[in-house]
Amino acid sequence: MRSDHHYYPASFKAAVALAALRQEQPLEELAARFSVTLDQVREWSATLEQHAGAAFTQPTRSPEAGEDLLDSSEMAKTIAENSTQGFAMMDRRGYCIYANKAWLDMTGYSAEEIASQPLHDLVHHHHPDGRPYPMEDCPIDRALPENFDVRAHEDLFFRKDGSTFDVACAASPIFRNGEPAYTIIEIRDVTEQKRQARELLSNERRAVQLAEAAEQRQRQLDAVLDATPVGIGVVDTRGRIILVNRANRELWGLNLPMVETVEQYAHYQGWWADGQARHGQPLQPHDWALARALEGESVDNDIVEIAPFDRPATRKTIALSARPIHDEHGAIRGAVVAQVDITLQKQAELALRQADRNKDDFIAILAHELRNPLAPIRAAVDLFRMFEPGNPVLKRATEAMARQVTHITRLVDDLLDVARISRGKIELRCAPCDIVRVVTQTAEDYRDPVQANGVDLRIAVANAPLWVHGDGARLAQIVGNLLHNAAKFTHQGNRITVHVGEQAGPDGPQAVVEVEDDGAGMAPELVETLFLPFIQAAQGLDRSSGGLGLGLALVKGLTELHGGTVSAHSAGPGLGARFTVRLPIRAAAARPGGAGGVHGRLDALRIVAIDDNQDALEMLSLLFSASGHTVSTAYDGAAGLELIRQARPDVVVCDIGLPGKMSGYDVACAVRGAPELSDTVLIALSGYGQDSDRRQSAAAGFDAHLVKPVSYPELEEEVGKALLELGRALVRGADLRA
């Protein structure tokens, strides 16, 4: 550092003093910057401040006078004029007698204008709030008469054009010969600084408001999350749990571990419960919905059985959905999972399924129990017809019995078919099938009973075959049920019309079958539920139309199994109805060949009949005997098998459900296991008629499976077909009709 006695030029001293007066940096730093002492900085700045007023009013003297330039008025004026701060000097009256360039630039006045009237009236005449500012209240104007310094005073100054700017100002009185002479005023434009301060304050307040709002939203979110019955969990990118709500804690237990990584999801016990191939298998850490969401997967409705941490022996079934959480750039920053306890729902579903199975089992048993008593009645009807009773009353009674047996049999079959369709257990034997031929034959079968009621039946079909891929028997059942339904709601003088044609469909050509009538019609609201099981149009107390409301439900189920649709339309009660079935047309195919029926009479056969229903067995024995066959009977499987071994029959007609240890299946297996009985025809005659029953019969060795009640001509036809397949020439005049 330089010695305090070192010579410094006046310009150097002025620069240091001016820098000190600007207060741009602490005096210690300023001294270090100019390599002078702190006392020198203070001395030079005080000298400049004290003598500035005198310098501006004294006549300029030549530098050659030998004085220090720091004390010359010329140097002081030069410094003031080049300062970026505003300097002004005001006399005792308050008039400006000097203002530097910075001051004039800030206020917009010229030197002449600034001196034309009291300075206060030009730049400081009103408070910031707009109130007039009396001169006697102004600290700058009071500094000289009251002899005090004004330091770091902030105020609002006015420009010539009326605009305002914020200033930081200082004022010092100057005395001559002990009398107040001048006031030195320094101003600095702090408008930008004040704006920034206000903006900073506003930002701080806004930040506080935002923080308070965020806290409020967080409290609201916490309340919402705790109120929702859905378990919510949020994890970060590593899989660390960062948020769970009340429902989640109740779902998993209060001892929920706060895991840090996906690998630690192994602490959670869960098993798949979605009914798929993985059902019952434990979930691995990366199987959980949250782990998969962190990989970018959107998970919907995972069904999982869990063991809560506080009650691991109590299992719960939950449905989970999860989504990844992305930032503004699309990067995954975490994941969220929603979990719903569906334990009660699953238990209810299981109970409903069990109830549905119980219902189907009951229907199957009911059908079996109804068919068993129908079998001897059907056989009795066939016996009456076989002997052609001469009494017309007896003949009419026989035909009435036949119709009612057929009606009850149809109801039982419909009931079973609806149950099979609802459980997806009905099987179609599909092949190329001409729907024109199926509809025509079925309609002709219904012509006599329809016309017997005075109803006109008309058939309008395409001239060429329309081939569909379907089960001919089931297609005939569809058409038959529609005709049966139309017949129930038409009366004497009405008409039923059957149309078959081809139309373009959304996925190709369609075969369209329409059954239309001009009978009772229906209300529009009934059309919506018409194809549901057990739904019927309103009937009177006599229920003259009868039925269980299953026929149209069967039509819908069977049509959809064939890939088709069915619809109904009615303009209203009394205006008839139209039912339309649409089936996809397949490529034309050659008419399939088939065995058709056996035509001719059977030679006398040795027959063993086995059934635990005494009436049914007796009627069956009477029918076979009346046709010239030799019949032996047994009431259980063991006795029947012994009888078969003794009699060596041509044909065995056997019930499936038999008392004792041997069922009909056991009898068939035993017969097929005896080489000496290899050419014996086995016919199952049972009240059980589901597809699974037929498969089991075939596996046991039966040649045919007939469902009670069966007409005698049907039974003879099946026996004849089986004999022909075995190559037995036991049918007189037999032929196979293609």
How do you describe this structure in short?
This protein is α+β, with helices and mostly antiparallel strands.
- Cα Rg: 55 Å
Q: State the CATH architecture of the largest domain.
A: 2-Layer Sandwich
**Parts with pLDDT < 50 across at least 5 consecutive residues:** 56-71, 538-547, 589-597, 732-738
Q: At the third CATH level, what is the topology name of the largest domain?
A: Beta-Lactamase
Q: What's the N-to-C terminus distance?
A: 131 Å
Strand segment count: 25
Strand content: 15-25%
Structural class: alpha+beta
Mean pLDDT: 82
Number of domains: 5
CATH superfamily of the largest domain: PAS domain
Strand order of the largest sheet: 7-6-11-10-9-8
Query: What share of the residues lie within helices?
Result: 40-55%
Q: Sum up the overall morphology in one term.
A: elongated
- CATH level 1 class label of the largest domain: Alpha Beta
Helices, by number, come to 22
Give a short account of the largest sheet.
6 strands, antiparallel
